């Protein structure tokens, strides 16, 4: 508020030619005010921005001019344009020693910046210095910036100074310090958790402004923890009493109301403290009653205090006198000509009706007037009130009114809300099942697509179960009335899909049960539904299943089935449908028609949707068949967890195949082949190893994905080439290597290990006041309105609750609102209606990026690197080591693996396997069957290590080792490759 006042003063001074405001600025404000279009205003502002950019960057600008420029920037920002080029100048102005300039700077930065802006760090030191100033105006300006700009990271920098200011001699400083602490609590509660006692102490401050500011953080604290502040009830009551008795200075009055905003905040706090506490509530009764008597209802602020008093009375322990006073105030609100006061009255009445339902009877005509008011907001609030006051005696009238309102509105969001309330009220307070079915038909007809599918299932369950008694006559009458009502509705255009599903199911189950309608008539209606809604596969599926039931019941009764031509054409169409579900249903219907009566009666018994079905979950009747199949060599049953493992492995291989054949290839281009003399023997040092130039460390990621260089050994047919088919990558994209680097070898084949990922299973809402205004007594009330009011408010006892009624109604409620057993659901499934809702669970693909924290146990290396180097200098061929079951290939080891930019080998148990980064022959011996035996987490862990960059330490150690052996690294001697080739 002070910031807005400051802007107003500055702009007023500019318009009046005050200090620091030039004629140019006054002309700017005048021209913008006289602009006739937004485009003209934007043109003026953009011209002003260009002018300010040029002038604000000039050196040695007078402070008076700079202040005007900052104010003009604020004006530009207020108009919605960007003035970020001048933010830094506003920050600089906060450092000025001149008080008007400093306050202008603080005002500008609090309007320009937010708590996450990059320039905040530049003013923290200035705020710290100004919080210690001797001038309280400077301290207040700094505290204003603290309340707006300090974020969670910078709270510790200013918190000690703010706490010290709580005891400042100036009341304005103490008030702003409380506000700053309140912001700190909202931003970071743990940073000021040790300072919450200060709010209690400042509640007794001598200045009413400080006390009023303390009520805001205390309200937040009490909202979270009510019990910790129960001891403050007497203090809050005392403060509220003093405010109501006008003991505060006149400066706190607003429209002749003594500190109304403090009163409202205190009433909110007392409502929290008195909720469910009779002892605490008794302390509040006197002061709240005084407020009811003293508040002036002729002003909006007085009505606001009265409304808050009603909210407080509805929250605390009930008191008859206070309830009567609240009812009188509500009566004044509802009789007012203001829609705002009527809205407040309806809302307040909805709060009190929970405590004393008979209060609503005093305002019958007023509620009806609000229900018929053209103001849509008031009408919706009235429906909320009617929803709260619904009983079994008035549920029919209220639901009918709600359905009429659904028809008259186009807002789908609110239509959904009203429809759900209609369903809820009908389920709880329905006087009869027939009325419930009729009400649900209306709801489905006008808002069917917006109703939850569970409502449709509950309706079908109610019709199937009936009254839940042994009276079969009443159940058959219920079903017959449902069939007749649906046959009269089925011809209407554009019925909702959910409603059509209910209609098809009821007609299929009970369409011919009473004998009033023939099978041909019902089947013709169902065919019309399937033809009219040909784009809705679910409706067509329900219609076909209903036809199946009709014909099955006819066959079971021994009557001839004459299929209508339209039904035959429908079956032919569905037999060639793209939907496998519709095809399946059509074939089932054709198959059932060809069976005898006994078989059909066994498959689809009449009226069996609610019968219990015994289910043998162990499938013991298949034991003999399984035993015979196993003796004949059939594969045994595989448990689900093992099937998931096999499915994951299959997904890996399928992904490998798809990536290799269709997906994008992310491997680098192959290096050019070197021309090699064909006379080089395959066992020699030059030809036995694929030599790859050692890359620089900065290109580590590229070399991880590079393809290996074809070696000289391509010439020899007996030389074994590296095969990368099915080898899982240890870094980069989660796929397998392509088959581009493989070579045909007829003499020898090397088995590469594939790391298996261990799948883990995911764990899975009294008296009647006859006093009416003299004007309204003269108005005659229409008989229709009197009858409507009598149906809404009359004929119910006040102790009646919204629970389910006794007698057959209790049985009915349990029949269509309670959950049926799983057996009943299975029976419904056997009828065929829920077949479209079944889905086959599919195992999710393996997560190749599941990088868990694992540890790899160390072990002794199986091959000494010094012996490998000795073998390189020897002319004999070194046989590579392998684990159990691994097919090894005799070849000379690759000494260039010493230069690999990453760990050369990783031990798992007693087995060492290579994680070489290039596609050389050393990978062949590394990815052996030991990889299969090692944990998959280890592979993923090392893949994570590789992506972090090369291990320079290992590379230097290996480089030094090679120098000791007298071998020159290839990176230092480019001609080494030629020398080795002879």
UniProtKB/TrEMBL annotation:
Residues 748-765 have a biased composition (Polar residues). Its main location: membrane. GO terms for biological process: intracellular protein transport; vesicle-mediated transport. Residues 737-747, 804-839 have a biased composition (Low complexity). Residues 53-593 form the Clathrin/coatomer adaptor adaptin-like N-terminal domain. GO terms for cellular component: AP-4 adaptor complex; endomembrane system. It is found in: Endomembrane system. InterPro entries: Adaptor_Complx_Large_Subunit, AP4_complex_esu, ARM-like, ARM-type_fold, Clathrin/coatomer_adapt-like_N. Residues 731-866 are annotated as: Disordered. Pfam families: Adaptin_N (PF01602). Gene3D superfamilies: Leucine-rich Repeat Variant. Keywords: Golgi apparatus, Membrane, Protein transport, Transport. The keyword Transport applies. Residues 766-787 have a biased composition (Basic and acidic residues). It comes from the Eukaryota. Adaptor protein complex 4 (AP-4) is a heterotetramer composed of two large adaptins, a medium adaptin and a small adaptin. Belongs to the adaptor complexes large subunit family. Subunit of novel type of clathrin- or non-clathrin-associated protein coat involved in targeting proteins from the trans-Golgi network (TGN) to the endosomal-lysosomal system. This is AP-4 complex subunit epsilon. The lineage of its organism: Eukaryota, Viridiplantae, Streptophyta, Embryophyta, Tracheophyta.
């Amino acid at each position: 508020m002070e910031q807005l006042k400051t802007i107003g003063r500055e702009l007023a001074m500019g318009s009046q030619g005050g200090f620091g405001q030039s004629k140019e600025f006054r002309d700017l404000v005048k021209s913008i005010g006289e602009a006739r279009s937004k485009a003209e205003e934007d043109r003026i502002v953009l011209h002003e921005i260009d002018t300010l950019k040029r002038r604000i960057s000039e050196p040695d600008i007078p402070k008076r001019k700079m202040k005007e420029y900052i104010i003009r920037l604020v004006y530009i920002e207020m108009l919605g344009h960007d003035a970020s080029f001048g933010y830094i100048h506003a920050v600089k102005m906060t450092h000025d020693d001149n008080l008007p300039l400093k306050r202008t700077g603080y005002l500008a930065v609090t309007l320009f910046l937010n708590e996450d802006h990059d320039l905040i760090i530049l003013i923290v030191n200035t705020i710290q210095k100004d919080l210690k100033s001797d001038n309280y105006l400077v301290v207040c300006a700094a505290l204003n910036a603290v309340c707006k700009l300090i974020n969670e990271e910078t709270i510790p920098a200013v918190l000690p100074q703010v706490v010290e200011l709580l005891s400042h001699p100036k009341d304005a400083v103490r008030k702003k310090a409380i506000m700053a602490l309140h912001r700190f609590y909202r931003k970071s509660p743990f940073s000021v958790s040790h300072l919450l006692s200060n709010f209690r102490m400042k509640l007794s401050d001598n200045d009413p402004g400080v006390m009023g500011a303390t009520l805001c953080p205390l309200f937040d604290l009490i909202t979270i923890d009510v019990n910790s502040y129960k001891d403050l009830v007497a203090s809050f009551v005392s403060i509220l009493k003093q405010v109501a008795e006008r003991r505060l200075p006149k400066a706190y009055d607003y429209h002749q109301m003594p500190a109304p905003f403090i009163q409202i905040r205190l009433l909110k706090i007392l409502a929290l403290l008195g909720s469910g506490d009779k002892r605490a509530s008794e302390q509040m009764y006197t002061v709240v009653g005084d407020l009811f008597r003293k508040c002036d209802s002729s002003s909006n602020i007085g009505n606001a205090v009265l409304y808050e008093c009603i909210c407080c009375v509805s929250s605390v322990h009930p008191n008859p006198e206070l309830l009567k006073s609240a009812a009188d105030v509500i009566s004044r609100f509802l009789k007012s000509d203001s829609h705002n006061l009527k809205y407040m009255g309806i809302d307040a009445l909805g709060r009190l009706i929970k405590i004393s339902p008979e209060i609503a009877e005093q305002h019958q005509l007023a509620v009806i007037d609000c229900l018929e008011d053209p103001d849509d907001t008031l009408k919706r609030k009235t429906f909320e009130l009617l929803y709260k006051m619904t009983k079994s005696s008035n549920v029919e009238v209220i639901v009918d009114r709600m359905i009429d309102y659904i028809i008259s509105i186009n807002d789908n969001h609110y239509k959904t809300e009203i429809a759900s309330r209609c369903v809820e009220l009908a389920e709880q307070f329905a006087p009869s099942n027939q009325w419930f079915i009729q009400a649900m038909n209306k709801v489905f007809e006008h808002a069917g697509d917006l109703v939850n599918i569970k409502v449709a299932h509950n309706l079908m369950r109610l019709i199937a179960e009936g009254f839940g008694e042994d009276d079969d006559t009443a159940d058959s009458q219920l079903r017959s009335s449902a069939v007749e009502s649906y046959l009269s509705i089925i011809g209407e255009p554009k019925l909702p899909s959910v409603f059509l599903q209910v209609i098809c199911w009821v007609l299929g189950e009970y369409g011919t049960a009473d004998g009033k309608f023939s099978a041909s008539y019902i089947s013709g209606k169902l065919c019309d539904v399937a033809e009219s809604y040909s784009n809705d596969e679910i409706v067509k599926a329900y219609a076909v299943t209903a036809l199946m039931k009709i014909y099955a019941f006819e066959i079971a009764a021994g009557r001839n089935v004459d299929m209508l031509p339209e039904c035959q054409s429908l079956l032919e169409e569905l037999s060639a449908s793209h939907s496998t579900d519709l095809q399946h249903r059509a074939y089932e219907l054709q198959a059932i028609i060809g069976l005898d009566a006994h078989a059909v009666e066994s498959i689809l018994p009449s009226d069996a949707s609610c019968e219990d079905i015994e289910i043998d979950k162990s499938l013991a009747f298949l034991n003999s068949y399984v035993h015979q199949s196993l003796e004949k060599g059939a594969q045994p049953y595989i448990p689900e967890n093992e099937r998931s493992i096999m499915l994951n492995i299959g997904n890996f291989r399928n992904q490998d195949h798809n990536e290799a054949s269709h997906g994008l290839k992310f491997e680098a281009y192959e290096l050019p082949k070197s021309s090699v003399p064909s006379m080089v023997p395959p066992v020699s040092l030059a030809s036995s190893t694929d030599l790859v130039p050692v890359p620089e460390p900065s290109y580590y990621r590229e070399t991880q994905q590079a393809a290996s260089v074809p070696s000289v050994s391509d010439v020899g047919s007996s030389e074994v080439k590296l095969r990368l088919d099915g080898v899982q990558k240890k870094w980069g994209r989660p796929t397998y290597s392509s088959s581009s680097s493989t070579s045909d070898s007829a003499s020898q084949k090397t088995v590469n290990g594939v790391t298996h990922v261990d799948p883990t299973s995911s764990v899975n809402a009294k008296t009647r006041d006859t006093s009416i205004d003299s004007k309204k007594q003269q108005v005659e009330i229409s008989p229709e309105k009197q009858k409507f009011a009598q149906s809404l408010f009359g004929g119910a006892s006040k102790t009646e609750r919204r629970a389910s009624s006794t007698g057959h109604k209790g049985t009915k409620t349990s029949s269509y609102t309670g959950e049926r057993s799983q057996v009943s659901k299975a029976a419904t499934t056997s009828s065929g209606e829920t077949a479209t809702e079944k889905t086959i669970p599919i195992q999710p693909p393996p997560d190749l990026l599941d990088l868990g924290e694992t540890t790899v146990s160390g072990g002794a290396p199986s091959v000494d690197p010094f012996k490998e180097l000795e073998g390189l200098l020897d002319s004999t061929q070194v046989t590579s080591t392998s684990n159990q079951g691994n097919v090894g290939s005799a070849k000379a080891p690759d000494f260039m693996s010493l230069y690999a930019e990453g760990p050369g080998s990783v031990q798992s148990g007693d087995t060492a396997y290579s994680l070489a980064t290039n596609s050389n022959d050393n990978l062949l011996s590394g990815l052996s069957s030991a990889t299969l035996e090692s944990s998959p987490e280890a592979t993923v862990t090392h893949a994570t290590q590789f992506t972090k960059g090369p291990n320079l330490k290992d590379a230097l150690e290996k480089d030094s080792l090679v120098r000791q052996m007298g071998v020159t690294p290839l990176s230092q001697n480019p001609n080494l490759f030629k020398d080795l080739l002879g």
